[in-house]
Structures are given as structure tokens and as C-alpha cells.
Amino acid sequence: MIKSVKAALLTGVALQVAIPSIAFAQSDSDVASKEILVTARREAENLQDVPVSVQVVSGAELQKLSIATVNEIAKLSPGLTLGGNASNETVIVRGVRWTPGAGTPATPIYLNEISFDPANVLQTVFDVGQVEILRGPQGTSRGAASISGAITFTTRRPDLQEFGGYAQGSYGSDNRVNLQGAINIPVVANVLALRFAANYERNEFDRVHSLNSNVDPRLKGTTLRLSALFKPTDTFSVDVMFQRSRQTARYFSQVVGTGSPGFAALGIPANFNGPALSVQDQMSVQDGPAYYPKDTDLLTLNASWEILGQRLSYNFGRQFSYNADRYWSETDPANVLPGFSPKQPVQNLGMPKFNIHEIRLSSIRKTGRFFDYDIGYYRKSSGGAIEIRGQAFLPGAFGAPFVSAPGAVRSPVSRYTIDTVTDFGLAQTYESIYGNVQLHIDDKTELSAGVRQIWDKVPISLQTSLSTSFVTFPRFLPAASGGCPSPLLPDSPVYGAAYCDAQATTAGPLPADAHNDKHTATIYNISLSRKFSDDVMVYATVGSSFRTGLPSLGGQGLPANLVTALPEKATSYELGVKTTPARSVRFNAAIFQIDYKDQLTQFQGVEYLDRVTGQSSRTSLSFYTNVDSRIRGVEAELAFSPVKNLNLSANVAYSKTQALGSLVPCNAATPLTAANPINYCPLPKGTKINSSAPFQAVFNGDYTVPFGSVDGYFRFNLNYQGNNPNFSTSTVAAKAYTLVDLFAGVNGNDGAWDVGFYAKNVFNKRVLLTSLPISNPYPLFAAPLGYETVSSNLPREIGVTVRWSFGSR
After folding, report:
1. 645 Cβ neighbours under 8 A, 6+ residues apart
2. Bigger pLDDT: 1 vs 111
């Protein structure tokens, strides 16, 4: 849960390959002439003329594939993962992973040019004008500096001239409901317009139910959005958007495994915690669900003034995060304590702050000019405080050690329980100035160069208070086998003379832990492109990046030297080509290499000795350490129209991440002690450390059949994931798989209405996406747990979508 907490408060590979928009439902076969405008360099340009990696997905394309959640956008882009729910807020681009708590995002997520906290943008998708996916360093010409790329969501802007709107609804398997709509009102023609949009969604979250609970998983969310566009002159405009999102989720942790084999000598029966479960079962064994309310308001303001051939821009963003109720995670996913559901409640103390300011001056691009420029100042400030309440269970909390089996005692004995209250004060101030120049050497050659100076401050405080607690030991065992360490210790008032008690903790605060890390860095980007003809462009790019992490506050009691990782640095090299060899064909490709120094690498599920409780624990999602690594790969895209009204595309990506040699935290047989609180293992040079499958491919197709005033259509999406030898922290490699989505329906050829049917994951393929070991909250429990927590893809979903629109849509 700490990953979600950090995400609510703070935010802070690489290849640049052009993967053009999938041109669905074109009226002809002229792929090359379909102009797709992008703002990758903060200026509207034709996709094929930009020497940067950018994939464009329009709002119309999202609607045609019934995409209403951000994670499904990844179906259109190999190498991209977007997880936008309470248990899986993740961004992966080319194997580089960001999760809440990882510090400055490796891939910033923009909403209307504001780089908000990714966890608060990745919620729902509706009334979207365009999504742009950029890859590679993007640090010298826009907002936040980034290592692996940037993803920009642009909401539909109000239309200054025409009244209109739309309504859309879909219903699918497992009670999945999504309703959305918008209405556009030109208040003063050509000067002021308003747009109201709304979305309601309800579903069974990740469809994971529990064998030990009658509660169903559920996600409910409502989002309201108001946009206003004010343009009193042709040279001045102000665009404002306010969005209010209210979302609640309750969910269970999916597990797979044989269940516990038990331990007969201690009277622990086999499968006391649950039966054997596979990924196909899609089940949990928790006694109760986790609960996560997520209430967020987002405000964006984009102002632009053109004067004397220059453009002055100002972007402002404000994020408000509310949590009226406590939210909690269930801390016993393996059901080691049957009948007892330990929870970790978390609450914001006051309202976190999150503000973005950016001011930018640039030349207005003009044909025939030799020189263009961008200069800007960017500032992000965030901060807040949270409170986490938890419990640590010492020997004796659930019955007499070495006598009571798990489940025999269902309420912890308070004498042997440590109650903890931890207050985190989190903040970040990130400032930078940047500049970029473009030299148009001739009408076919362009040289671009930029630099950014960064100042990053991350003050963080930690204060933990404990209750008085005791630990009990059996007198009938020698001390070396877990028995009473001294005959002088008093008898246990709970278990009698057969046990002795020793005080473990004293009520009161622990010494405060404070960090006030400050970093400065300078990064650069240089790109050279040459158009050898109107149909062929070649470009080469080299760029650097810098990213700071956050202290690993999610791992209570971590060894002090592992609390904060070093900043990450990277240099990217790339050579690419963009071509349109025929009017019905587009082919692009590139090769790349990224050299990482101190890459922030996640080591989730590593066992360590908690210096607060003295017990074994495992690292959380927010635990990062540094690894030197190198990424090499290639990507290619082919889009073509073999016959009229048929459009096909194929995107393939291969990237391999290899370690350059170091020692890293690991799970090993060496016992954990105060002198050795965590184990290290060598990570040999050349070891593959991909976060996702090295080879991935996406295939899409659309065929339209005209029938008078209506059109029939058939569409498909195939997503292939190759073998992944580095499947999370599991020792078993993930096997290759393919997911297939199909769509069919009819629409008015004027685009005013559409009735469609869809089947997602047609063959009901079930595959593991992540797999992690589980910490044992029950001391002196000798039997293996028999489970790992996992996540898997959604099962087959069949549904229908209806859409009606009028006027300005």
C-alpha cells in the first residue's frame, strides 16, 4: 500500500522510433497522404517529418477499439505497459519500469501539457482528443526531463463555433459498465466555448475473488470534466480544464501455488491456508479485501500569446488529492492466519499539495527560416504527510510458540503485538531551465541541440512510535533452538511457567529519520536529420538523462545504507529511418543503445531483517537500488493498405537489458542477523534484467464494407509477448503468448452513430504478468506458505457498445 501512498503525494531505454498512428477506416488506400499532426516538439508537425519517436492514437481510434482504460492503450504499442488501477500503477517503456515510490517518473505522463503524478492520470480514458507516446530522452524542449520517454493525453478542446456532443455506453461480461458523454457549447461564437464531459464506470476490478470472503471485488468511478476555451484574438488564447474524479476499489491479492504442505510435528495440517490454485482459477485466499478510495481533482491552464513572430506560453497545473476515509491493504495474502484479517490502514494528514508552473518562449516555425529556438523555466513542487498504522506479531501473539497451530488463535494477544504509528513527511521541489535550437541547414537537413540545468530537492522526514510489547519463549527448548534465553526471565502471564517473557519494545517514538537530499545535473540532446527525398528521412540522436529516486520508506526498518539509492544517469544513442515507399505503404525502423549508470532498479520481495521489529520482512514496490546496465534493441513498423477499405499494420519491438556487473540485494540461504540484515549476490556482467518480454509485436487490421448510408466494419488486434527469461523475481521464465481482440459492427457513414460488438481475449488466454514471494507474518511457523502473489491478465470479455453524436463531436 505504501506504493499507492507515495504516488498520491509525489512524482518525481530508450529508443526513438516512429510508430505512426493506426489509420483505421480510411476511405481510400492512400496511407502516405494521411497527414497526422503531432506536438512532440511543442509545435504541430507532420508525424513523418519529426525526427523523434512518437506514436499517435486518436480519440476516434480509442472508441473504435472500445478502449476505456489506460492499460488497454498498451495493446497498440509493443514495449509499452500502462497499469492504472489501485494494485498495479505501473509504467514500463522498453523494459524500464516506474511504479509509485520510484521517484521522478522515468516516463512522465502529461495531461494537457502538465506532467502530473502518473498514478492520478492513469485512471480512465474518455473524451480524449489524442494520445502521443514518445520514446527516448525528452529532456530539453518540454516540461519535465525524462529518461525513457513521455506520454501525453490531450482532452477534447471546446469548439468555438458549433454546438454538439455525444453519448456512449458499453456493457460487457462480469457486469462491466462504462458510460460517457460530452456536450459542447459555443457561448460567444469564435471567442468563448465550454465543454462538459462525464464518465461513469463499474466493474469487478481484476475479477479476482477470494475463497474465504463473500465480498466481491469492485471498482466504481465517476469523473466530471469542465473545459473552457477563451480566444479573444487570433494571437491570444487561454484553455482551462478542471476534472474531478471519485473512484473506490476493493480487491484481493491473487495467489498461485500448492498451498501449504503443513508440518505434522507441530500439528499443522497440509493446505490449512487453502487448496492448490493455478492462474486459471483467478482466486485469492484472503479473509478480507483491500480497500482504496481515490479522490482527485486536476486543474490545467494553458495560455498562449503570439507577438512579433514569437510565442509566449504559460502552463499551470494543480493536483488536489482527497482521502476522507482511511484506506488499507490486507497484509496476509497467503492466509497464514486463518480467520484473522490483519490490515494496514493509511491516511493523509491534511491535503497534499502538487503544483506545476512552466513558462516558455519560442519562435513560431516558418518555412525558409534558418534558426528556431525554445527556452523555458519549469518548476514542480509537491508535498504532504501521511500516517500508516500497522502491527507486527511476535512469538506468542497467536498462541503458545511450538504448540499452537496457525488458526488456533484468531485474535492477536496484545502483549505480544507491536502497534506502530508511522508519520511520513514527503516533499519535492524540482526546478530547471532549458533551451533548444533547431538549425535548418538547408530545406532537407536539420540539426537540433538542447540543454537543461536541473535542481532537485527532496526533503523527507520519518517518525515511528511503538507500543510496549513482549516476546515469549518456551522453557522446554534450549536457547539455541528458540527456547528461553535465560532462566532468570519471568514466567509468561499468558502461557504460564512453561514459557518465559522478555520485553521487546518500549512505548514511545524511535529516533526520527530525516533526509534532505539535493541534486544538480546538466543534460543534453543532439539530433541530426536528413531527408534524402520526400519519402525517406534518416535521423541520428544522442541524449543524456538524469533521474532521482526517493527514500525507500515502504520498507520499514530497512538497513540504513539501503534507504536511499543514488541518482540515475543515462546516455542514449539511436539511428532511425522514416519512409513512405508507396502511397499505400509506410515503413519505419530504428536501432538504439542506452547506457545506464546507477540505474534505479526495483528489487521487490527481497528478504531483510527489520531493525524495528527484529523480524524478517520483504522489500516493497518502493524499494530501489542501483545497477549499471545497457539496453540494446530495434523496432520497426509497417502500415499498408493492400486494397481499398482494408488497413493493416504491424509493430515489432525487441530490446535486451543487460547488467554490467555488480552486487545486488537477493534472497539467499545465509541467515539474516543484525550484522548481516540483507543478503547480497553477484549480478554478473551480461545478465539479462528485462522487466518485460524482450520481443513484442502488435498487429492491427480494419476492413470497412459500405452498404448505402451505413458501413459495416470488422477489426482485430493481436498482441504478442515473447518468452521472458526474467519473469519478475520468479525463477521460472514466462512463456510466450498471444491475446486476440475482435470487433464488428455498423455505423452511419457520416459518423453520427455506431453499434458495435466486441470480444476481448477471445480465446480466454490466462497468463501471469507478475509473481512475487510472500512475507510470513507468523513467527516460528515452520511450514512453507505454498503460495506466491501474482497478477494476471483479464479473462475473456464480450460486450456491446452504442454511440450517438451530433454537431461538434
Report:
1. 26, 27, 703, 704, 705, 706
2. 111
